[in-house]
Amino acid sequence: MDPTAHHYGITVSDLEASVAFYRDVLDLEVLAEFAVGGEAFATGVDVPGASAEFVHLDAGDARIELVSYEPTGESQTNGSLNEPGATHLGLAVDDLNGVYEGLPDDVPTLSEPQTTESGTKILFVRDPDGNLVELLET
After folding, report:
1. Which of 30, 77, 132, 137 lies 20 to 30 angstroms, CA to CA, from 11?
2. Which residues form the VOC domain (predicted)?
3. Would you tell me how many other CB atoms lie within 10 Å of the CB of residue 19?
């Protein structure tokens, strides 16, 4: 087996708002939009009667997959990064300070950009559903 990254999936409550965030705030290009339903899909995701709308965005070597399900499940909003099971998406940028200065006022951040002991500059933001996105400059 020789697996390679294909996509990173994020379940969202409002597909339109999430696409706007990832496209307009993080400047990711929309590659595809599609819907999936039917018994095989519902069985495959283990959600009775499930259907979903998907948007794939270009993240370089992999895609970010935003997905909105019907029926919707209960929110599993991430808390702190040190909680077992916590997840985040990491995206490299060229000018982290410029990105930070250009963020809309309504985009929550955990802090201002910070330079870690390893020399990497990091900034964590939250998407419309509260998912953590790490923006980093190496």
Report:
1. 137
2. 4-138
3. 19
Pairing of strands 132-137, 88-92: parallel
CATH 3.90.190.20 is right for the domain spanning 7-70: no
Going from the C-alpha of 126 to that of each of 17, 80, 88, 100, the distances in angstroms are: 13, 12, 9, 13
Burial 93-130 (b: 16+ CB within 10 A, else e): beebeebbeeeeeebeeeeebeeeeeeebbbbbbbbbe
Q: Which CATH class is domain 88-137?
A: alpha beta
pLDDT digits (tens, 9 = 90+) for 119-132: 999 999 999 999 99
Q: Please, where in the chain does CATH 3.10.180.10 lie?
A: 7-70, 88-137
Instruction: For residue 124, give both structure tokens.
Output: 């964590």
- The model carries a pTM of 0.86
Query: What letter represents residue 25's amino acid?
Result: V
